[in-house]
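Field log, afternoon session.

UNIT: design team B
ACTIVITY: writing a sequence onto a fixed backbone
BACKBONE:
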């Protein structure tokens, strides 16, 4: 059985792996953070002293670096790590809850896709996974091919749509040669994917082909049936 500081660190990490911070005291949360900045030392006493000096976990994280370094055992690396916590959470919240684009027209979807696909030199097939309100959940590249062809396996498209729990999708690929008009293979693939996804209650709103500044929409040209 592990004993000593390293054994205690390991037990904290295993507890976190099992259930996050459920059941952790505030000083134990601080111990876990400090264990990554202060190697080969017992950080329990350091965490407790920080809590006693500043009064709460939030106050420790908000404390100036110079004040943190006044605690014995807290060097520059540990102080900087502590200071990153609230800033990291701010960054996380902004990114986590930023509004995703919503596509209410072919032009909106084509403009979004064009930013990623118009400069590709090889054919790339991707999907836009959408919510019930047509908000973007994820854009995922399914397959990449040659300059004028990519083989698309329907199974991979289905797996991507299910993975993102999409209620609708927009299929998309590019034509690096500059002609946005679909080939017979494009038409066959569109019909096949539309049929497969429809059986899974996933709507296929469109299949958009990007060719430089131009695009072709199957939905606009009656090709989704």
């Amino acid at each position: 059985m592990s004993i000593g500081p390293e054994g205690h660190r390991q037990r904290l990490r295993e507890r976190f792996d099992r259930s996050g911070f459920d059941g952790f005291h505030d000083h134990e949360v601080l111990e876990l953070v400090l264990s990554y900045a202060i190697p080969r030392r017992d950080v329990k006493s350091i965490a407790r002293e920080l809590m006693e000096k500043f009064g709460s976990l939030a106050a420790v994280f908000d404390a100036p670096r110079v004040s943190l370094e006044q605690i014995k055992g807290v060097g520059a690396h540990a102080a900087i790590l502590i200071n990153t916590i609230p800033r990291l959470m701010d960054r996380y919240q902004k990114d986590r809850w930023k509004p995703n684009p919503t596509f209410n027209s072919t032009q909106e979807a084509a403009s979004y896709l064009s930013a990623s696909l118009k400069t590709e030199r090889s054919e790339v097939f991707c999907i836009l996974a959408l919510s019930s309100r047509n908000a973007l959940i994820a854009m995922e590249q399914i397959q990449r091919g040659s300059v004028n062809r990519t083989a698309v396996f329907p199974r991979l498209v289905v797996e991507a749509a299910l993975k993102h729990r999409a209620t609708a999708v927009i299929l998309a690929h590019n034509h690096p040669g500059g002609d946005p008009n679909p080939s017979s293979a494009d038409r066959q693939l569109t019909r096949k994917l539309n049929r497969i996804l429809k059986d899974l209650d996933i709507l296929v709103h469109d299949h958009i082909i990007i060719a430089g500044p131009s695009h072709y929409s199957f939905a606009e040209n009656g090709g989704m049936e």
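LOG NOTE: The two ends are 65 Å apart (CA to CA).
NEXT ACTIVITY: expression trials, pending approval
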